[in-house]
Design goal:
Strand content: 5-15%
Strand order of the largest sheet: 1-2-3-4-5
CATH class of the domain at 115-235: Alpha Beta
CATH superfamily of the domain at 115-235: DNA primase, catalytic core, N-terminal domain
CATH topology of the domain at 115-235: DNA primase DNAg catalytic core, N-terminal domain
CATH architecture of the domain at 115-235: Alpha-Beta Complex
Shape: globular
Helix content: 40-55%
Radius of gyration: 27 Å
Distance between the termini: 52 Å
Largest sheet: 5 strands, antiparallel
Number of strands: 16
Bound molecules: zinc ion
Number of helices: 25
């Protein structure tokens, strides 16, 4: 293990701008530097490097980290190798601390050490080797029409039947990382077994090419048909899209992405030459997915199964897309015949027919109007009234001005009212300029109290010394606050923020920290960190006082002990 203070020394001697510039030319933009992101395809730069904060962040794909993290991701080096490479450049020798034997320390090292990606890589390799050995699995893929080339492109493998096959791939089957990556299931009695058994394995790869999870499909009958990795520090379902890594180039070339429901659809489409498809992973299409795809391309086409569940998924996608629509970008819906999914449809009809269908996909506005008007008799006043009610939440959710305006005109015409009447009914006011806070000026919602506290600690770690010892909270930001405090206490509050970022890379809190830090790029130079911090702690203490007071009050004055009575009166006086 490399000592934390060495990481700090190294980061202090490096300038992230120099490190990134060795690989990617940067342009100055305000206080920061920007470039087109080296980790995903894009035309306008959303990759940002902050010299003052010494981290990089991509607003397109979420890539985030320090100089060390950048070299790891860009040069594909492991943690230790990246540190050695950078240390060489500034003439430092990397000391290696021998692992102390204590349980707590070992647990801590496992939490912090960024080796989860390596574990996934080993598993991917193992499953792929097993596929070569299983004629039954090979026959299954062949029967689905998949070639060896496509199987290799998507890294498809096979998890054999049996309970502890992964013991052959990992020297220590009890290692905590197998549990953290979701490869094994640990029972209440601390027994372990492989999560994926007798399944075709589809590695889920992030835009940086790292395996972060798996989807497993049964070969014959069996439940569940599809099984995904659980949420882990590496894998967050609502943020990932299956096949995006492989499809990036084709999406850019076509300026179009096709969103389907399953990984078999993605692979089958690629087999037939439709290489711009991605799939959600056992979740509905989230707002995050939509934002991510709209940054990549001009046109999103959703194609869900023809059945009822598919229709429902399509409508959910529409609802989630409305707030993120951009004038000039297109979203369409491809409806397949009821008995088909994209996989079965392209196998039966071929690429040309399928792509013709993609071309003719229904624009979002037509789909919206069709659904709000469905089964209504617009010749009656009741029907037109219902149309107005149904359309209201949808139309008011749209932020894109031209799209919203055109839809309002159409709904107004359909219901026989004027545009002005509809706008009055929907309480759509001419855009008024209210006084705006610093956060609104930047076009962002203010962060929650826990997020802001986390940001204060990142910006000025020494503030951690002033945290009340009984501070607590719920949610990922609060958990990250506590984890940061734990690391800070261990090092007597001597760490600076880039070191903190680095130490949390590859841990459960990495994403939370990345989001908090990305937000901090919008802080103005007049942002007063210690004042914000003092305010937050004041509010927390105030909340505690109120809770104590209410608890004493609930007990009833006559039931209080003498010290409780004194405390009660004291709290009462303070108000
Ligand atoms: Zn990016």
């Amino acid at each position: 293990m490399i000592p934390k203070n060495f990481i700090q020394d190294l980061l202090n001697r490096l300038d992230i701008v120099d490190v990134v510039e060795r690989y990617v030319p940067l342009k100055k933009a305000g206080a920061n530097f920007v470039a087109c992101c080296p980790f995903h395809n894009e035309k306008s730069p959303s990759f940002t490097v902050s010299q003052t904060k010494q981290f990089y962040h991509c607003f397109g794909c979420g890539a985030h980290g320090t100089a060390i993290g950048f070299v790891m991701e860009h040069a594909g080096l492991g943690y230790v190798d990246a540190i050695e490479e950078l240390a060489r450049g500034v003439g430092l020798e990397v000391p290696h601390e021998r692992q102390a034997a204590g349980d707590a320390q070992r647990e801590y090292a496992q939490k912090i050490a960024p080796d989860l990606y390596e574990v996934m890589q080993t598993a991917t390799h193992y499953y792929r080797e097993q596929l070569k050995l299983s004629q039954r699995a090979i026959d299954y893929l062949k029967q689905r029409g998949l070639s060896g080339e496509i199987a290799a492109k998507f890294g498809i493998g096979y998890a054999p039947d049996g309970w502890q096959n992964l013991a052959a791939a990992f020297p220590d089957y009890q290692d905590a990382t197998l549990n953290e990556t979701g490869l094994v299931i640990t029972t209440d009695e601390a027994k372990r077994y492989d999560r994926f058994r007798d399944r075709i394995m589809f590695p889920i790869i992030n835009v940086r090419g790292q395996v972060i999870g798996f989807g497993g499909r049964v070969l014959d009958k069996g439940e569940p048909k599809y099984l995904n990795s659980p949420e882990t520090p590496l894998f967050e379902k609502g943020r990932e899209l299956y096949g995006l890594y492989q499809a990036q180039k084709a999406i850019r070339a076509r300026q179009q992405v096709l969103v389907v429901e399953g990984y078999m659809d993605v692979v089958a489409l690629a087999q037939h030459g439709v290489e711009y498809a991605v799939a959600t992973l056992g979740t509905a299409t989230t707002p995050y997915h939509i934002q991510k795809l709209l940054r990549l391309t001009e046109h999103i086409v959703f194609s869900f199964d023809g059945d009822k569940a598919g229709q429902k998924a399509a409508w959910r996608a529409l609802e989630n897309a409305l707030p993120y629509l951009q004038d000039g970008k297109r979203i369409s819906f491809l409806f397949l015949p009821v008995e088909h999914d994209p996989d079965s449809f392209i196998r039966e009809s071929g690429r040309d027919v399928f792509e013709q269908r993609v071309l003719e996909a229904m624009p979002l506005s037509s789909y919206l109007l069709r659904e709000v008007g469905a089964e209504l008799d617009l010749r009656t006043q009741e029907g037109r009234n219902q149309l107005l009610q149904r359309a209201k939440p949808l139309l008011t959710a749209i932020a894109a001005p031209a799209t919203a305006l055109l839809l309002r005109k159409e709904v107004a015409a359909l219901s026989g009212v004027s545009q002005a009447e509809l706008e009055a009914l929907y309480e759509i006011k001419p855009v008024a300029r209210a006084p705006r806070s610093a956060f609104q000026k930047a076009g962002r919602a203010p962060p929650s109290a826990h997020r802001l506290l986390l940001q204060c600690l990142i910006e000025q770690p020494a503030l951690g010394q002033q945290m009340p010892s009984d501070w607590h909270g719920q949610g990922s930001d609060a958990e990250a606050v506590l984890a940061v405090l734990m690391v800070l206490r261990e090092t007597d509050f001597t760490l600076n923020s880039p070191t903190l970022t680095q130490l949390f890379q590859g841990t459960a809190h990495e994403k939370t920290l990345a989001m908090a830090e990305a937000d901090m790029l919008n802080w103005g130079s007049d942002f007063d960190v210690s004042a914000e911090f003092t305010g937050l702690i004041g509010k927390f203490n105030e909340g505690l006082r109120r809770q104590k007071f209410q608890a004493l009050q609930a007990k009833g004055l006559s039931n209080l002990t003498e010290p409780e009575r004194e405390q009660f009166l004291l709290l009462l006086q303070r108000g």
